């Protein structure tokens, strides 16, 4: 499966939301060790307001941290950046069947709103791209399929991560977002490239 992931990057079909961190991860995937079982995420606890994070906005409209990891930007009036809004939509289109509405988990998949409290961006990408299996968790095995060849996930990987990170940090509640920034033309062009559509 790792070879197919590298193929995304080698062929120039970068995910619409991919940034420098994704390129670094793609290179690392070809040499990475197997993913080990992760300890269950701690139970949900009331979250405090997250500490302010220095953010930069790129030409695609994506906010990133100083490390280059994608991050949400929610204005005081509740307006979401495009990536967080898109992540909400993409999560509910592709992920909520197993991981529950709003990342709250289900009887057979963990609550990602809890997992992303401690999971790093590269760890998230590794699991989504290559899948993961936890043997003997509770009464049944848990298997996360690999999505490295699914464009409906890969083209929006950063969007999904950003949405779930906002949920994990307590910056975004369970309600449907009502205000958002506009999608940039550069984002649309990159999205079209990822799907192989004409711009």
UniProtKB/TrEMBL annotation:
Keyword field: Heme, Iron, Metal-binding, Signal
Organism expressing this protein natively: Ancylobacter vacuolatus
Residue span(s) of domain Cytochrome c: 63-168
PROSITE patterns linked to this entry: CYTC
Segments of skewed composition (Basic and acidic residues): 173-185
UniProt-recorded name of the protein: Methanol metabolism-related c-type cytochrome
Signal peptide region: 1-37
Sequence segments annotated as region (Disordered): 173-199
Highest taxon above the source species: Bacteria
């Amino acid at each position: 499966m790792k070879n197919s992931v590298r193929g995304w990057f080698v062929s120039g079909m970068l995910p619409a939301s991919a940034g420098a961190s994704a390129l670094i991860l793609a290179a690392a995937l070809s040499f990475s060790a197997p993913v080990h079982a992760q300890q269950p995420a701690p139970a949900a606890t009331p979250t405090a307001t997250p500490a302010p994070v220095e953010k930069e906005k790129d030409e695609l409209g994506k906010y990133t941290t100083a490390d280059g990891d994608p991050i949400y930007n929610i204005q005081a009036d509740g307006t979401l950046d495009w990536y967080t809004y898109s992540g909400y939509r993409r999560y509910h289109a592709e992920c909520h069947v197993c991981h529950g509405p709003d990342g709250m988990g289900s009887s057979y998949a963990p609550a990602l709103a809890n997992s992303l409290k401690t999971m790093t961006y590269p760890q998230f990408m590794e699991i989504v791209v290559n899948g993961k299996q936890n043997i003997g968790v509770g009464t049944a095995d848990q298997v996360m399929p690999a999505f490295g060849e699914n464009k409906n996930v890969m083209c929006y990987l950063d969007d999904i991560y950003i949405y779930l990170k906002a949920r994990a940090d307590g910056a975004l509640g369970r309600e449907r977002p009502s205000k958002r920034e506009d999608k940039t033309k550069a984002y649309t062009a990159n999205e079209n490239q990822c799907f192989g559509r004409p711009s």
